[in-house]
Design a protein that fits this description.
Blueprint (H helix, E strand, L loop, with lengths): L2 H8 L1 H17 L2 H7 L4 H8 L3 H13 L3 E4 L2 E4 L1 H8 L1 H10 L1 H10 L11 H12 L3 H9 L8 E5 L5 H9 L4 E5 L3 H13 L6 E4 L3 H7 L7 E5 L2 H23 L4 E7 L6 H4 L2 H16 L7 H10 L2 E7 L11 E8 L2
Helix pairs in contact: 2-7, 7-9, 9-12
The structure holds S-adenosylmethionine.
Length: about 350
């Protein structure tokens, strides 16, 4: 028996855990962006980002050994691997930045007793919007193209950093939008993205939960309401009757509104689905998180039944582009009041 060979296999997850967390630090510290601009020496990175040189060198040594940076002529540069990983940074922002504390609390929360694990909601919202750029935003656009009239006013409840709204406003010159988001950090990020894009006169951001917003704000009837991964939040916070009550309140307030709901089909117990490589890489941790935080994922048929009970009719249903995600686990619903 070769102990060393077995040991390397057995502790591979520890290497991957360290790598995931340090890759996220690579992004969050600004080092990745700095090296993406131009090769830099240790002193340049340390001075420009105000980082302690010895510790910075420690992190860079680690990243070099994991083939994320290399050194040439006394300067650090990004490897091809780092650039590939950088393209999918949003998954790190959400799952590592947003949910590392959740994974750490799984053991304590196993006892239940009403204890939920915490998460960094701001990072979850920001990361989720970055992921949506690849899957949910194109899916929403496809569903929008099925509306009888193109939308001219859009409301995004739980808008994260408002990337949805920015992307839509950039491609649809007639569109005006309002984003509502309870996390102050995500709202601040939304506000700065909207300003950077020069869209302040078309996109407004409100720092409220969906409920507070519906009860207080006086917004002219929007044509379209987008709920990207929000009903799972309301379900966790208020239960099934809360979601129905919420959807009924939306319809009562905006009777002619069209809704686009994006949710994830809960297929965690389906071994065939869970064999898919993206299911293992993404959805398996994603399902786990939802068991331990105050959110709840349900199946497609469960949502369809709930929509009918809330007085909504499903006009169309679709999935992300299969080149991005061929699991069909993410579902977009185009809905309207049944009467
Ligand atoms: C998974 S992110 C989704 C962000 C974005 N809608 C998207 O599609 O990528 C969930 C968001 O819901 C927000 N949220 C949680 N509870 C909420 C509530 N009661 N009302 C509105 N938003 C809520 C969180 O702050 C977070 O930004």
């Amino acid at each position: 028996m070769n102990v060393e060979q077995d040991l390397v296999v057995a502790i591979e997850p520890i290497r991957q855990m360290t790598l995931a967390i340090c890759t996220n630090h690579f992004f969050e510290s600004g080092i990745y962006a700095k090296l993406d601009g131009a090769p830099c020496s240790l002193t340049e990175i340390s001075q420009q980002l105000s980082l302690e040189p010895n510790r910075l060198e420690g992190l860079l040594n680690y990243l070099r050994n994991e083939n994320l940076v290399f050194q040439q002529d006394g300067k650090y540069e990004l490897t091809e691997r780092a650039r590939l990983v950088g393209k999918y940074k949003a998954w790190y922002t959400m799952l590592v930045g947003g949910y590392t504390e959740t994974f750490v609390q799984v053991g304590e929360c196993l006892k239940g007793q009403g204890r939920w694990a915490t998460r960094d909601v701001g990072k979850v919202g920001i990361g989720s919007c970055g992921i949506s750029h690849y899957d949910a935003i194109p899916l929403t656009q496809r569903l929008m193209s099925k509306m009888e009239q193109p939308a001219s006013t859009m409301l995004d409840l739980g808008c994260g950093n408002a990337m949805y709204l920015v992307e839509f406003c950039k491609t649809m010159p007639q569109l005006r939008a309002c984003g509502v988001e309870p996390s102050k950090a995500a709202c601040d990020s939304a506000q700065s993205i909207v300003s950077k894009e020069g869209l302040e006169n078309r996109i407004s951001i409100v720092n409220k939960s969906v409920r507070e917003f519906l009860q207080s704000e006086d917004v002219d009837e929007p044509d379209l309401l987008v709920l990207g991964f929000i009903l799972q939040e309301v379900l966790g916070q208020e239960g099934r009757s809360g979601v129905i009550d919420f959807l009924v309140s939306v319809l009562r307030r905006y009777p002619k509104i069209t809704l686009i709901v994006i949710e994830v089909d809960n297929q965690v117990s389906n071994p065939t689905v869970m064999e898919h490589r993206l299911a293992k890489a993404y959805y398996n941790p994603y399902y786990l998180i939802h068991e331990f935080t105050e959110q709840q994922l349900m199946t497609d048929s469960w949502w369809e039944e709930l929509f009918a009970e809330a007085g909504l009719q499903v006009l169309a249903k679709d999935h992300p582009d299969s080149a991005v995600d061929s699991t069909n686990l993410e579902i977009g619903y185009l809905l309207r009041g049944a009467n």
